[in-house]
């Protein structure tokens, strides 16, 4: 299949998984997936997540706006090559009035190696091109934060700025890179 393949069942608003094949045209001159292509994967899995939740393209149009990437912060650990299958996980971390943040990891299916981690800040933009408020229908899903036993909970700061147990080691390791 050309594209993402998703797990069956209800869509979890706090965690979404996909499987992606590396295609030949995505490689750079070293035979590795080009770094910019990883960002395409990150955007695609996030958009597939909201689409599966019922907040996709048709909903955007009816709501008078849409998501646009404002920032990506990527850390690359190992390369992917042609023939690899990649496992993507995207986790919404927070949603404010006009922006939302996601954490996405990309692992190689064959050995489970972490290839890339990306934090993305998304902005809601109105049809006229100006920043706008995220519609309440979507914001209300994320208002109370993630369930305490979820991956999103381990990655998000607690109110007051303290990081939940388990996230501090990940964040400390990332800040040294």
Structure description:
The chain has helices spanning 35-52, 57-63, 136-142, 151-155, 167-175, and strands spanning 16-21, 65-76, 85-95, 99-108, 114-126. It is an alpha+beta fold and 177 residues long. The chain has a single domain, classed as Hotdog Thioesterase (Thiol Ester Dehydrase, Chain A), CATH 3.10.129. A 5-stranded antiparallel β-sheet has the order 1-3-4-5-2. Strand 4 (99-108) and strand 5 form a beta hairpin. The termini are far apart.
Strand content: 25-35%
Task: Characterize the quaternary organization of these chains.
Answer: single chain
The CATH superfamily bears the name Hotdog Thioesterase
CATH topology: Thiol Ester Dehydrase, Chain A
Shape-level CATH architecture: Roll
Order of helices and strands: EHHEEEEHHH
Number of strands: 5
Q: State the helicity in percent bands.
A: 25-40%
Shape: globular
**What structural class is derived from the secondary structure elements?**
alpha+beta
Level-1 CATH class name: Alpha Beta
Poorly predicted runs: 159-177
